[in-house]
Amino acid sequence: MAYQPQFTISTELLSLVEEIASLREKIQGASIDLSWIPALQKDSRTRNVHASTAIEGNPLTLAEVRALEEGRTLEETSEKSEREVTNYFACLRYIEKHVTESPLRHEHLFELHRILAGGNVMDQGEAGSYRNINVQVGDHFPPAHQDVSPLMFELLTWWNEEASKMSPILSSAILHYRFEDIHPFADGNGRSGRALALWELYRRGFDTHHIFSVDEYYWEDRPAYYAALGQVRQAGDDLSEWLEYSARGLHETLERVWARIRSFQQKETAKLTLTPTQERLIDLLKKNDGMRPAEIWEALDISKQGTLKLLKPLLDAGIVIRTGTRKSGKYQLGEP
Fold it and tell me: Which residues are annotated as catalytic?
């Protein structure tokens, strides 16, 4: 038997899914085979680790998390705080290594939890095993411990057999919520659930380059995150509002990724391809609110064909954009 999620596709959710799909295609198209992908991946991995552990109260800053990833020694931090962070880095590497694994079984979840919760970072329970105690999370009483294994079997059946029939935007959010609702481990469920949601995005090919960090959105307003999870139970397990909340978070995440890509594009273009004439053009565009093609070739004293050749790499990189109609269009600097 598989888990059966309940939800309604609202107009807002449908619009968000369409916008997210469009943003993703733009990001995927812009980032293929570019030399700065590893830097984006490293930055996203660090942001994921910092945000997901910070949600659970880890005090390390983003700069300190980055330092740990780079092998630097921190001063005046606890061993437990550092271990939680290094465990989460190892967890993400495990997911990346097993991204194409199918079907996913209890053993994969146990191994993921052993990595996340190893080294005495758990306050209760045993790493890599479903809980054998009943727990309370705020005002939520998750299922009794004897029901955990069959409920997780149902969820895994849904993940392996049904999730692929819907958008990964929805399936990752559903997996995230249901895992947290069951709360299968004695400790470390928040980090595990967010890691599984990311695993679903990777597994479905949604984040091919592994450069999204949705957990930042949750961390920046933890009360809203916890309220969104709690609202599902208040609505009788209707996931509709949770899906809208998660989609807004993913949309915000992709907008940030696109801004980072644009920043990399500008740095790469400035470093590798700008000619003196292109630099003069950029300086002109900074001083003018858009310039027509004739104004450009007159100001630079070059031919119409030369102007088009000059503009093409800048347009491809997003440094310069064209606005207006074909007859009255202007060129101006793109947004930073």
Answer: 183
